Amino acid sequence: MPSVQTTTELWESLLAWLDSQGCPDPSKYVQLVETTAGGGRGLVAKGDIPPNTTLIKIPNPALLNTKTLREFYPSHFHTTFSATQWISLHLALQYARHDRASSPVDPAPRDKWWPFILTLPRTFPTVPLTWSIGRRSNEELASAFGIAEDDVSLRERQVDPRLRRWQEELLERMPPSVRVRAEEVEGRFKKDWEKVQEEWKKHCEATPEEKDELSFDFFALGWLNTNTRCVYFDVGGPKVNNLTLAPVIDMINHADGRSTKPIQGPVHGLTFASPEARSSDPQLKDGDELAFSYGAHENPMLLTEYGFSLPANPYSHVDVTRVLEQLFEDAGEEGRLKKGVLQDSQYWGKMTLQPASDSATACADWILLLALRLLHLKLPTGRNPFDTNDAPSGSLAQALGPWYAVVAGDEEIISPLNEAQVQQTIQTICDVLVLETKEGVPRCEELERKWRKEEVDPDLRASLVMLKGVWEEEKVIAEAVAAAGRAK
Ligand SMILES: C[S@@+](CC[C@H](N)C(=O)[O-])C[C@H]1O[C@@H](n2cnc3c(N)ncnc32)[C@H](O)[C@@H]1O
What we know:
3-stranded antiparallel sheet, mainly alpha, binds S-adenosylmethionine, Beta-clip-like, about 50% helix, 3 domains, about 10% strand
């Protein structure tokens, strides 16, 4: 493991390496600091910076992506791995090789990016995937992720029972919206790990000396770095591979609503400039933090992908897709067929309750309304229009006609009765959600009180505050949607 370096030391050694890579000195305009607002490290402006000044220029060879990795790996890796898999694998191998290089008996060659890799975080304590991995015993971990028995990380893993309990306690307090997202992130991670583990095993049949170099722990660390720090970068292949790790630019934190972004250029790989004169982004004054928007993301997404949330997030909403899944399931065969209609017409997606805004009251979003209108659409009794053997041709289209008329915008509602049932179901969904949040918030508060008496890591405390924040914002939205419905 590297000796712990201060932010200043890391910055200095990164600058020296960038210089050796032909990169113009970014420290002319920016400085790496520990931010005070809980964002970890961040970059701040040195002096007042004129609009549209290029602050950071990272040349192509210093970027870490599927294009720059190519020359270091067998040619088939390019088609075998996605960008996330390959970059994560590369980081995992470097961590392992660096560990070995620290041993005088078995020095390994250093990677060209090592001074950059050294600046990447070694822990992700606020990301739910970390809790999910951390709370498992070796046996549970091996079975959940299909880790080979001889994986070095299982042999060397030391689990702190208190940390495990704290992580377990956080997982138990995740709102359903966070849980669904966290499971999705974990599913992606698992798929990537399994693919890389399997391919690396094949690769090591020809190079057995490299066998021990891939371990689960280092892959997880590489994957978390890739997932939280990569930025968009067109590598000229499938869209899914359009990403890169970029030194210095990867130190820039997220701020909502910014339009300034890293820019890809033919000569300098990736650059970041101060806002243009006519930009709505604030101009950079001495000491201001640089920022760009990672996307229009709600808190459950920010928390599960990046390990942070925003206290006042303009994209807050409540994802109720899981509730709709259940309602259609409860409606039996007809419910499943109606869900099929929604899927076929691309109207089965994320369904949400939206908060009040300047221009609208709190409400169910359009596709949630469409789904509920179809759920409550009364089909003709007798013949089943979904059954092609039973119903005359054209009968399904006829039965669904009133719904299609709403979809096309020809009608506002299917019928007053259908609309009343839809609104009633929305009220019921809100009531259930409010009840859930009324349990979720106090459970977080109770844990906060309990943790006050223990020496819990500040990052875990911050995670608990974030979970509580999601419960609270969902409560406000569900109550507002219910109130707006009652006022109709
Ligand atoms: C691309 S890195 C940015 C640099 C990072 N702060 C560091 O210390 O290296 C992304 C990570 O920074 C943190 N982060 C970014 N924007 C943030 C924000 N607005 N509030 C809190 N944390 C933030 C999160 O941990 C996220 O996973």
